[in-house]
Amino acid sequence: MNVAMKFLTLGKYSLGVGDRFAHQAKAQLETFILAAEQGVEIIPVWNKSNREHVAIGSDPASTRAAADKAVEILNWRKPYHVDADHIRLDTVEPFLPHADFFTIDVADCIGRPADADHTECFLEQHPELIGKLSIPDIQEPFRINRAEVEKIVQKYLLAVAEAGTIYRRISEKKGAGNFITEVSMDETDQPQTPPELFVILAALADEGVPVQTIAPKFTGRFNKGVDYAGDVAKFEKEFSDNVAVIAFAIKQYGLPGTLKLSVHSGSDKFSIYGPIRRTLKRSGAGLHLKTAGTTWLEELIGLAEAGDAGLVLAKEIYAKAMEHLDELCAPYASVIDIDPANLPAAEDVNHWRSEQFVSAVRHDQANEQFNPHVRQLLHVAYKIAAKMGNRYLSALEECELAVSRNVTLNLYERHIKPLFL
Ligand SMILES: [Zn+2]
Asked: How confident is the model at residue 4, as a pLDDT?
């Protein structure tokens, strides 16, 4: 692949943070400053998807403005990026002037069969994929026969071609090398295996997509705002093999040397942080971890912790979330596991003291009052706060001290520390 002289690269470790109401960029950036003080450079990436903008009624310019302002106030001198998260050809346009990181989502195209000529041509060009394939740091060589490779190619080739189309669209507007490219395939039913990932990377290289982060779907459930649910040992093997596949694909196909895994819905997955950390240490690989809505939950915790009007508002959001339970949960069915029997009634929550509300929502598994059902429900309830408009935003401003402290410490103590420090 012909890499341009000027090529915007992504740092080795990066953390994607979401800021639904564009009020916490400064509190989030404080986290990266704390990490830098401990000698670890982690690059902040502010990500927001089109569907989040639609739900909130915001636009990509506001994400850029909030990030720039925080960077200026705190005098952050290292790189930072604004990620057009999960964009497609029909949603990329409004992000073009404001983002310098694009998460190209092609999950919808997975499984749509590629045409026979295209598949045949790819197989002709890649005899190395057929038969025994030894990859350094993977104990057992892959053994895939021609029919199996053909099946993988048919499943993913069209998705890769779509990634190429979207990449070229962004390139036309921004100029190649002026933005970071991520390709995401996580929002689908089946996890991609390491051999599939290798075929996908070969195809992306052929397509001329200088991918720097790739988000496969991993084994297990990545529910929003709560811990990983799945076989941790299986995840560790898969994650480690994926890291090895990427290192090999960089050499084999000339993909950018900065290419690394991106873990979506990566916040709160405490039980896999140990395995991820070990793999990174052993391999020297980088990581992009995309957090999911965790900052919005810290806003609620901060409001509840502040007490008085903040607590009342947090309870009101819970009560409305209970009223609209089905409607809020439906779009997130595949990424939440809520048992309604474990959701306390709004009348009961209305009697809670500040500490009780905070304990139920804050992700501290050692606290007996922690309730993952309440936490997941509130995670998907941000539309209620969006509807409150200025009432919600003023409350954030009035309770800023408590809110920002929670936003910073959640990212630092529960995410950055176990992963990187
Ligand atoms: Zn994703």
From this structure: 46
